[in-house]
Amino acid sequence: MGGSESTDYDVLIVGGGPAGLSAALNLGRALMRVLVIDADRPRNAATLRSHGFLTRDGIPPQELRRLAREELSAYPDVEVRRRTRVTSLRPSDGGFAAEIGRREAETTVTARAVLLATGLRETLPEVPNLRGYYGMSLFSCAACDAWELRSRRLALIGEAPDIAERARLIGRLTENLTVFTHGADVVTAEEEVELAAAGIALRREPIVELVGDRGQIESIRLADGTTVAIDGGFVRPEWHSTLSFLEGIAPATDDAGHLRIDRSGRTDVPGLYAAGDAAAPGPQQLIVAAGAGARVAAVMVHDSIGVATAH
Ligand SMILES: Cc1cc2nc3c(=O)[nH]c(=O)nc-3n(C[C@H](O)[C@H](O)[C@H](O)COP(=O)(O)OP(=O)(O)OC[C@H]3O[C@@H](n4cnc5c(N)ncnc54)[C@H](O)[C@@H]3O)c2cc1C
């Protein structure tokens, strides 16, 4: 694609997870000049192994990214800058201008189109020392970590109103599931009956302590003094978008702040696209994010010359 004089890059990609890197690969192969800026804080950094990515089941999160960047190095028009971040993105001259890096060493780049692949940020329930077990024996993604936890004594910890619904999903994995609401009034009496009918225990008391050793949970101690033995389980975090760097650009979002996109990955701001966990709705998985990155890349190429997508 030929460049206009005022544009440094054809595409700026904010975020170098599977969504952003997959888009970069496909845009690079389409002869686009691409810059990927990645703060390099993978959402799944807490875990040692990633599951469910075809040909890479069990791979450490950073290794998946390293392999992707290695492949990108074959494309001279694709540049990846790591451990730095886009601090501001604003409209400029029919495209976009971005500030990158810390204030004292900030650089400005311009691009005709921008892909937001910034993922999500998570807030875990305020249970003491939950972080010490997260990603090792307590997880958030049933689709990602179900297999290793099958048939074990499992916990589901959460304070959100969908916790009973999630319990039915986790209940597929084991006959020994306990839901812990940590004092939050989020399970109705009707849902409690349904959980009991499904053989799922409910504990409404606040959690006082998670007991275990080096990331492996062993039991949960409650405010009423009782202790429940546990081998592992799931938590229900709150999810937040990470888009505070947008200035003078306000793409539509859903109630939770996730970007609304059309089937092809376009936001409602011309030239601004999104893929991966940052874009709602959809399963939050690595291979889904990578697939979304590939799809939006094809659409960006077509849009850049005004050709209707035709696959
Ligand atoms: C504990 C845990 C375990 C998981 N395990 C699995 C698993 O086994 N299998 C699976 O399929 N999925 C798993 N997931 C889900 C998976 O991590 C996500 O679905 C996936 O990472 C989404 O990819 P993404 O590219 O959209 O975002 P991310 O991988 O989160 O990448 C987004 C990137 O954007 C960067 N970024 C954000 N803002 C900026 C900015 N302003 N400037 C520059 N860079 C920025 C971030 O630092 C990050 O590097 C797990 C998630 C968690 C929390």
Keywords:
311 residues, alpha/beta, seven-stranded mixed β-sheet, five-stranded parallel β-sheet, binds flavin-adenine dinucleotide
Give the low-pLDDT segments: 1-6
Unique ligands: flavin-adenine dinucleotide
N→C terminal distance: 20 Å
Radius of gyration: 22 Å
Let me know the average pLDDT.
94
- Percent strand: 25-35%
In this structure, how is the largest beta sheet organized? 7 strands, mixed
Report the structural category: alpha/beta
Helix content: 10-25%
Compressed to H and E, one letter per element, the order equals EHEHEEEEEEHEHEHEEEEEEEEEH
The gross shape turns out to be: elongated
**E-strand count:** 19
Q: What can you tell me about this protein's structure?
A:
This protein has 311 residues and is an alpha/beta fold. The protein is built from six helices and 19 strands. It has helices at residues 18-29, 61-72, 142-149, 163-170, 189-197, 286-304; strands at 9-14, 34-38, 78-82, 86-92, 95-100, 107-116, 121-123, 138-139, 154-158, 177-180, 201-203, 207-213, 216-222, 227-229, 232-236, 238-240, 259-260, 272-274, 279-280. The strands form five sheets. Strands 1, 2, 3, 4, 5, 6 and 18 form a seven-stranded mixed beta sheet that branches. Strands 8-15-9-10-11 form a five-stranded parallel beta sheet, with helices on one face. The chain has a three-stranded antiparallel beta sheet with strand order 12-13-14, with no helix packed on it. Strand 2 (34-38), helix 2 and strand 3 form a beta-alpha-beta unit. Helix 1 packs parallel to helix 2 (61-72) and helix 1 packs parallel to helix 6 (286-304). The two termini are 20 Å apart. Residues 14-20, 37-44, 46-47, 50-53, 85-86, 117-119, 122, 135, 139-141, 144, 242, 245, 276-278, 284-287, 289 line the site of flavin-adenine dinucleotide.
